[in-house]
Amino acid sequence: MRVALAQMSSGPDRDANLDRMAATLDRAADAGAELLLLPEACAYRGAPSPGLVEERDGPTLSRLRSAAAARGLAVLVGGMWLASGEEARPYNAAVFVGSTGRIVAEYRKVHLFRLATAEVTEDEGEYTTPGDHLVTVDYRGLSFGLSICYDLRFPELYRSLARSGADVLCVPSNFSALTGAAHWEPLLRARAIENLCYVLAPAQEGVGDDGFAAFGQSMAVDPWGRVLARAEEGTEFVTVDLDPATLGRARAALNAPNETAPAVYDRPVARERADG
């Protein structure tokens, strides 16, 4: 299956962002993609704005559903504000739209970004309601596990997705440029290696309207931890072909995900003290 990973520099103008997403979808379809993955904050990137929180029949999903159906490819809307019932704290949700335009699944970001440094102070929990469940989507012979950005730092989430049968781990992101230089690639490759899954991570780049600098470098990683594609600055999208046989070979060679010992991990840890 050919997939396309979009790289965006979304801003505060939702209509402009939607125009770009629709154009990218068309070009990805022309390139043979069966699935387009959009990054977190694809429809709007900026300061919290209750007026831009959407319902499921709002402008972003309505337009992308029509575009997906017209071109016959699925779309993962990597992260957008959807109403939660608490006006000031919507969900940050990834929505999987099938190739017929039907909304198939909605994943609500579980882990909310927090960073406190001299350069950046951010607490996503102040304006976002966290999700409380995990989601996989079966599409054309592969199972896609959904996550968003900061979730990447929590390996337990991905192990749960893999145990549920995920073949591909999706990590749409608006990853901080400050932490991304050191953490982005190692974490993506680690999640692939730990779970023997493909990892697909479309990303935002550049500085948003709120001053937040995103790292970019949308990336696809194979189940052995090899980087298959990396988007340079200004790249609209990259494509990669997912091969079930590659998954099979990796999992036949290394059975580590099935050799965990939770009964041992749950026991109290022995704490000894050496002399001196």
UniProtKB/TrEMBL annotation:
Keywords: Hydrolase. SUPFAM superfamilies: Carbon-nitrogen hydrolase. Residues 1-244 form the CN hydrolase domain. PROSITE patterns: CN_HYDROLASE (PS50263), UPF0012 (PS01227). Transmembrane segments: none annotated. One of its GO terms (molecular function) is hydrolase activity. Belongs to the carbon-nitrogen hydrolase superfamily. NIT1/NIT2 family. This is Carbon-nitrogen hydrolase family protein. It comes from Streptosporangium jomthongense. The lineage of its organism: Bacteria, Bacillati, Actinomycetota, Actinomycetes, Streptosporangiales.
